[in-house]
Amino acid sequence: MSRKKDKSSPLKKIERMRSMGMSDEQIREYLSKKGFETEVLNQHLTKELSPEELQRELKEKGLIQEDLKKIGAQRGPGRGGPGAHGMMGPVKKAKDFKGTMKKLLSYLKAYRTIIITVIIFAMASAIFGIVGPKLMGKVTTEIFTGFISSLKGGVGINFDYIEMVLLTLLGLYILSSIFSYIQRYMMSGVSMRISYNLRKNIAEKINKLPLKYFDQTSHGEVLSRMTNDVETFNQTLNQSLSQLITSLTTVVGILVMMLSISVVMTLVALLILPLTMFSVMFIVKRSQKYFKRQQEYLGHVNGHIEEMYGSHLVVKAFNGEEKSIETFSRLNDELHTSAWKSQFLSGMMMPMMNIIGNIGYVLVSILGGTLVIKGTIQVGDIQAFIQYTRNFTQPLSQLANISNVLQQTVAAAERIFEFLEEDEELADESNLESVDHLDGKVSFENVRFGYNDEQIIINNFNAEVKSGQKVAIVGPTGAGKTTIVKLLMRFYDLQSGQIKIDGENINDMTRYDLRSQLGMVLQDTWLYNTSIMENIRYGRLDATDEEVIQAAKAAHADTFIHMLPDGYNMIINEDINNISEGQKQLLTIARTILKDPKILILDEATSSVDTRTEVQIQRAMDRLMEGRTSFIIAHRLSTIRDADIIFVMKDGDIIEQGNHENLLKQNGFYASLYYSQFEHTA
Amino acid sequence: MLRLKSYIKPFILLLLIAIGLLYVQAQMDLALPDYLSKIVNIGIQQSGVEEEIPEILTVNDYEILKEFLDDGSIELLETYYSYSENHDFKLDQPLYVLKDLNADEEKAYKTSITPAFNMIISIRIQMNSGEDMIFNDQKIPAGSDVISILLNMPAEARGEILSGMSNNMSGMSDELASQMNINMVKTYYEEIGVDIGNMQSKFIIKTGALMLVITLIGALSSIAVGFFAARIGAGVARNLRNDVFKRVLSFSNTEFDKFSTASLITRSTNDITQVQNILVLMIRMVFYAPLMGIGGVIRALDKNVSMSWIIALAVIILMMVIGILFTIALPKFKMIQKMVDKVNLIIREHLSGMLVIRAFNTQKFEESRFDETNEELTKINLFVNRLMALLFPVMMFVMNGVMVMIIWLGAKEIADANMQVGDMMAYMQYAMQIIMSFLMLSMMFIMVPRASVSAARIADVLETDITILDPQQPSKPEVNKKGLVQFKNVKFKYPGADTCMLKDISFEAKPGQMTAIIGSTGAGKTTLVNLINRFYDATEGSIEVSGVNVKELTQEDLRAQIGYVPQKSYLFSGSITSNLKYGKENATVEELTQAMEIAQGSEIIQGEEGLNKLVAQGGQNYSGGQKQRLSIARALVKKPEIFIFDDSFSALDFKTDAQLRKALHEYASDKTMIVIAQRVSTIMNADQIIVLEDGKMVGIGTHEELLKSCDTYYEIASTQLTKEELS
Fold this sequence. Notes:
- The complex is a heterodimer.
- Chain A is of the alpha/beta class.
- Helices cover about 65% and strands about 10% of the residues of chain A.
- Among the domains of chain A are: about 5-65, no CATH class; about 100-260 and about 400-425, Up-down Bundle (ABC transporter transmembrane region fold), CATH 1.20.1560; about 435-515 and about 600-610 and about 630-675, 3-Layer(aba) Sandwich (Rossmann fold), CATH 3.40.50; about 525-595, 3-Layer(aba) Sandwich (Rossmann fold).
- Chain A has helices at about 5, 10-20, 25-35, 40-45, 50-60, 70-80, 85, 95-110, 110-150, 160-210, 210-215, 220-260, 265-310, 310-315, 320-375, 380-420, 480-490, 510-515, 530-535, 545-555, 560-565, 580-595, 610-625, 635-640, 660-665, 670-675; strands at about 440-450, 455-465, 470-475, 495-500, 505, 520, 600-605, 630-635, 645-650, 655-660.
- Chain A has a six-stranded mixed beta sheet with strand order 6-7-8-3-9-10, sandwiched between helices. In chain A, strands 2-1-4-5 form a four-stranded antiparallel beta sheet, with no helix packed on it.
- In chain A, helix 3 (about 25-35) packs antiparallel against helix 4 (about 40-45), helix 4 (about 40-45) runs antiparallel to helix 5 and helix 9 packs antiparallel against helix 16.
- Chain B is an alpha/beta fold.
- Helices cover about 60% and strands about 10% of the residues of chain B.
- Chain B has 28 helices and 17 strands.
- In chain B, a hairpin with a 2-residue loop joins strand 16 (about 690-695) and strand 17 (about 695-700).
- In chain B, helix 14 runs antiparallel to helix 16, helix 17 (about 390-415) packs antiparallel against helix 18 (about 420-460) and helix 22 (about 590-600) packs across helix 23.
- The model of chain B has no long low-confidence stretch (mean pLDDT about 85).
- The chains are: A alpha/beta, B alpha/beta.
């Protein structure tokens, strides 16, 4: 890997290395070896710099040219633009072209037979097409000589000959078109199948990845692999494969045909090529500069628009309209200049190609005319030659562009494979006994945990929770109250120590068995775009409608559900905002009631729910907790005071535990937390 | 599209120039095949001989010709040719050189002199062929000088032979006759020793040079068109963007609600870019296509009328194929988009619900749910792909078929001397150009509707009336009532809604007091404070700020008095300083630091960068609590008369919340404070608490009063406070 490539996105690199399980120390060492500005990256690694700030820093220092995020964001709309822009946009390069190419080829192995057939058909179609002009030229020659001879009283045009050649020609063209269609037909079958499988693999992979992975990777990134990358991969694969074959065959075939007509004329026609290449490169280079600039300003303008519209309340409340318009017109003017320049320059491509093509055309006409007079070639040959030169440039520029397309394919494939090859969650040990009943006794023994080995946040935690007890977890915002929950659910594995349920280590159960005994109601309610009935049934997929309704009643949700249009059949919309926050909470409670778990994890609502609903939620939760061991992330005073045990958390660690009275007596962190709540300003 | 036509107006001149240039470009593109045809017809077939009339005659032949002509014709011959010893023709003998003839003279020449000339030449050809000749049943042996024999004949007999020959000629078509004439001239030139090869290459090079010039002019105009198109496109986009942006900034919440913020963003960004791109494409292709197509048709008809049905047929077939394909495919395209959205939705749900999915062991269920949609998407995608894959092979076949047909029919036309080979070659190119321009036009039918959707969406924004306007003659706030907020029987209904959001709201918020508003979500708390800011206008009743109805103040004057902290903390990209100074440009560092202290945000600005810490777009690099505190500090820096806190402490923990309120109380003791809160503990010390339920005030008073008198308030309080605190 060259250093230049590394420089393109250190940020991505860090993310990748982290997700590979490298420690920050290792990353730092690696980066310094590679000659990076370690100071900036160090700051990022020690969390002083947010990714955005890091990006800005790196950009200012010239270590990365583009806003990483912006490129991603603009790929979407950019595609809709006029064709000429397609090849101007920045091309994402693969980090390891060779390696990925290998993987890609082995991935395509399954489709080997079809692909080879596609290649054969593509070649055949191209070849049949190439023979055409030469045959047509022959006919023209026959017409010409026949006519001249008729002027001189000769035999005239041989129509039988013409008819025969033209019929052959027609046959060839029909075959060419049919082969071309078959090739396209088969290729879209292959590429669609591949996309389907890739999407399926990605979706399944999500379930197999440890949650740790998602702490470091944004959902947007996974989503973009699923959509953008698969789409790019599919399109470019289709394009690069059939174009490569067709263009290559065409170029070689035309070259052979041209040489068969006249070597001199071929040389002249080929002379045009470097001319074309230079001028295209000249324009591309220039217009790319402006194109990049245009995209950059477009990003600024759009960013400003988004920001101002999004916070128009503040803009208005602070009388910021004028200032905002001023900034906007400045950005807009900048965009205008770069926009027309880039538009103009990229638009020059076609006329330039045209003029060079026409120069070739004229040269061929002159030279051809001269050669005909000398009797070296025939009149029809000029016609054929002109057609060949015209058909020559397109496949050639396609070939020139193919490395770009291939880069795109491989880059997209790389990102997809990268994802598919991420380390998966440790598999459940085999031959574990299945667990179907638990009492709900939970014990934490010497629990030591950190999201990575360097940062241990829970050092040595011990606790004993008896069956049916209520445990309140308290602490300031961001103290890591959900950590304990995640450990219990075995979303993360411990560094050392063990968590036991009914005396058995949770690692000795399958995740499936463990989780089927645990119920979870988080504040961050999750519902999906289907009916309310199905959303509740999610708790136990084989539950009957009757059971679902019972659960809803138990969760005090039945009443409001009946008041909704369509009742239980009401579809929750895609943005999940056609029912209120509180109602969502009730549905998730109903869902958990339906699951009927032995151990319960609850997250109490804080602010966003209105008071009436909150009372109902409270009642529903109380009902849910009956007879179950419960862990409650508590905000409500009454819950905390009623709890059998309180875990007090701070900075990710559990620093105190005991019941309310005991903890107050300790006069530690819990006590100060408790009093601060009622320390009134008066 | 038409609704935005006023935006084209400033560019109308550029547009006209562009169209003019397009015309030039089309003419040039169309001229080229014509020249190729000349190279083949004249340069090759006629060896560079362009005229049917010999330009020179040797002295000897001049005299012979005279012998075969009647008196009138001799006179013509004498006026048309003049004797010259120093001529430009590379022959070392004196010549008679033709003067420039006009069309009438040419015609006269062809009827009276050409037959004789042709006869002489053809006799000579025959003589050279070494075969015997037969004249008036008289056999003339090969090798004899037929011309002298003829000259010695009596004039009458000669005349008879001549008229017989011209009768022969008149049986031919004009085309064939002129071919014949040119052939005679060529033969004559060869005979007298003119360097035909030289003439030929001269002609070809001359024509080639002309073609290059034409190419150049065409390319230059097309580049110029590109320039104008780019200027127009980018210019229109800039003006649109400016106007839309200004318009949207002057929108009140009513208009924002009508469109939704996301839609307004798309309209100002993507839609405008879309219009720009289409505009450029329209100018370059859509205007060009008819110019090219019509020009092509004219030229093709000029070459040959009888074959034009081939082109018409090809165009009709292509249009039909495209029409059928797209009518089937277009609705499917929409379905594909829907399916793609659905795949995305499911994956988004899958990702956001990861914990839930694992907790409920529903991985397999999710996979099969995804698989169903994936399967559907694949199926429909495959169908459309395979359908569209038809287009290219069919197009290729039709075009190639046209070529074959033109050659087949062209050969017959050529045999009948209705056209020449070069014309046929040119005809093929015209056919391609015509078909191409129709293809371009059909592109337009696909693109323009898309653009006009975008254009209409932009026009919707530009044509929306703004509901909240400044008064014609604004009043100024009253000094002695500074900071006083009064609601007088206010009723508010959202536009289009059936029921009132707020009803019978009357209260006063005095300076130095804290007025709290509490109530369940949807009770109308935020709506109420939005009326103070005049984000909406009250439907009935009036709201007075500093003693003046808010509708009588300019929006700027009104809002300058208010420090507003919205429910959601919006921060702008930039630095902490730039955000804090948003309400007061000239605030000092001390003021900023103080505001941060009061807002309990000192810890945010600790460290080297301090106030210069960067803020990413939307403040993504700060936590919810930090954003909220920054947003509070921003309002504090403004030093307004009235503070409005719309549930602004929700992301803070109890301790910070309490400290902040304490500091705030000390700092703004003489200001009007209006606080919306969910937590009773936040507001229990307020001077007055307004309890809202379903848009009505169900209680107003202090915490203690309300506990006793207001059921709703008691209910709220009971879930949050201990039993001791409630009593």
